[in-house]
Design goal:
heterodimer, A: 234 residues, alpha/beta, Rossmann fold, 4-stranded antiparallel beta sheet, globular, B: 290 residues, mainly alpha, two-stranded antiparallel ribbon, 2 strands, 73% helix
Chain lengths: 234, 290
């Protein structure tokens, strides 16, 4: 297993957002985390990336426990995250946003040239400030920035949020090439149809707990609806 | 025609102010930290240079080679070991209180070690050599050197910030610290390097001050105020603005002193207040996009 999340709980102050969550992801897989708003999806990704101040349980990457390891060192191991809301650095140009993604100089297939080939929409805007892009272009840039670290594990948080369906489709079309270049992907997605199409397996979170998991093709619509809204099937 | 001379002398004095303001501007730009011990640290550098000159008979200008790397190290450790802890939680008050305390501690330590006597660094002939341009106008070699060094330091820093991996890390961390962590930047280290560079420039400023004029353990806060005014006049977070701010402050003080000797410093303060009132982003400051 590339990523092993064992019985993790996560807290924001006194508020508990995750309860006893266990997730396994094998190398080369694409796994979707779905669930309603506030189910703990993003919290789970943040826990893996090391952005949560208070967690219990263990997260192991490639067999190595990450307890207490700061975010920037997790990137050094190959865990890159595309944060919710893109979080493009506004005072850096498009090209600089990509270059800063390679801050740790991890060797691998991705370079500025390769990322611009993957997202041609960014190519003629490389000198522009990152803040002066459309939402879809910012999302591409955020993904490109994460790829520049040549990640082994790529965490995608709410890629489709606020984007036109055609843009979302175009971004998801690039996913096979990302996986083909050696990244294992864990994606958090509101759009269940999109998530299940893109992923090999899916976990459905409900109020901070895993309510359902299985191969994307093997989950019925009824099962997902029940897990999503917390209804017990008879 | 004396005003031409005053403006020229003011610009030269402004070179020293710009040199003082560089580190303050850098630290504020990278981590929103206002270092109230800034002026005192420059006086520490001047006293260290004095101690070196007392021990080894060299021109104080050469002490730059030792004091600058030393102050870089002091800055790195100061940030890593203390100031980083004050930045947690984003409250602007803890760093202000801690550096205020540091300022008092440094002044008293200097008083204890070096006494309250006025000191100066003797750089020899360069101190009063000048280039005669006309009957009314002469440019001192040393003030000219100060201005040139000030511009060189600021230009070098601008180059680092705009062109290098370190500069990108500075800007990215300043934009969004959490996302900077996500791309693998260790913010604690970035902040420590920024403070190291800031104190390296402060060391140059302190030594040049010590050669230009006399200093005592208690003059740090005045230096801080001038540096602070230069940064605000020029515009927070703008490197070239810091140079402009220093020059404007220098010219204002020299012209003010021409009206009446007591009015020099006051004129500088008035320009500072006018900028705050009418152009709070500073002369070259950009309004920060949301």
């Amino acid at each position: 297993m590339l990523l092993q999340v064992e019985r993790v709980a996560g807290f924001y102050g006194d508020f508990q957002a995750l309860f006893d969550v266990s997730v396994q992801v094998a190398e080369g897989e694409t796994v979707a985390i779905i669930g309603a708003n506030g189910a703990g999806k993003s919290t789970l990704l943040k826990t893996v990336a090391g952005l949560m101040a208070r967690t219990t349980g263990t997260v192991a990457f490639d067999g190595r426990p990450l307890d207490g390891m700061p975010t920037h060192r997790r990137l050094g191991l190959g865990i890159a995250m595309v944060p919710e809301g893109r979080r493009i650095f506004p005072s850096l140009t498009v090209e600089e946003n990509l270059l800063v993604g390679a801050h740790r100089l991890r060797p691998g297939p991705w370079s500025v040239r390769r990322v611009l080939e993957l997202f041609p929409a960014l190519a003629d805007k490389r000198g522009r400030p990152g803040s002066r892009l459309s939402g879809g272009e910012q999302q591409m840039l955020a993904i490109g920035r994460a790829l520049m670290a040549n990640p082994r594990l790529l965490l995608l948080d709410e890629v489709s949020l606020g984007l036109a369906p055609v843009v979302v489709r175009r971004i998801y079309e690039t996913l096979p090439e990302v996986v083909g270049n050696g990244a294992t992907v864990v994606l958090v997605e509101q759009d269940i149809g999109q998530a299940l199409r893109a992923a090999d397996r899916a976990y459905c979170l409900l109020e901070g707990r895993v309510a359902l998991h299985g191969p994307s093709g093997g989950l019925t619509r009824q099962q997902i609806t029940d897990a999503y809204f917390g209804m017990r099937s008879a | 025609m004396t005003w031409v001379n005053d403006v020229v002398q003011g610009l030269l004095l402004g070179g020293l102010y710009a040199l003082f303001a560089t580190g303050l501007s850098l630290m504020f730009g990278v981590m929103r930290l206002v270092n109230l011990a800034h002026g005192d640290l420059s006086i520490v550098a001047a006293f260290v240079a004095l101690a070196i000159v007392d021990a080894v008979p060299v021109n104080p200008l050469w002490t730059v080679l030792v004091v600058v790397p030393l102050m870089f190290g002091v800055g790195y450790l100061l940030q890593r070991g203390m100031l980083n802890f004050t930045l947690r939680g984003g409250d602007p008050l803890p760093p202000v209180l801690v550096t205020f305390g540091l300022s008092i501690i440094l002044q008293n330590l200097l008083l204890e070690v070096f006494s309250a006597d006025s000191q100066g660094l003797d750089a020899g002939r360069i101190e009063d050599a000048s280039i005669r341009i006309s009957d009314r106008l002469a440019v001192g070699w040393f003030p000219l050197l100060t201005l040139v060094v000030g511009i060189a330091v600021l230009a070098g820093l601008q180059l680092v910030i705009s062109r290098t991996r370190l500069g990108r890390a500075f800007r990215a961390t300043s934009d969004d610290q959490e996302t900077a962590n996500l791309v693998g930047i260790d913010d604690r280290n970035v902040y420590a390097v920024a403070t190291g560079i800031a104190l390296a420039t402060v060391a140059i400023a302190g030594i040049f001050l010590g050669i230009r004029t006399t200093f005592t353990p208690s003059v740090g806060p005045t230096r801080l105020i001038f540096a602070f005014e230069a940064v605000v006049i020029g515009g927070l977070g703008s490197i070239w603005g810091t140079l402009v701010g220093g020059l404007v402050l220098g010219v204002a003080q020299t012209l003010g002193a021409q009206v009446s000797p007591g009015w020099g410093v006051l004129a500088g303060h008035l320009v500072f207040l006018a900028v705050l009132a009418f152009r709070p982003t500073g002369l070259l400051g950009r309004t920060v996009p949301a």
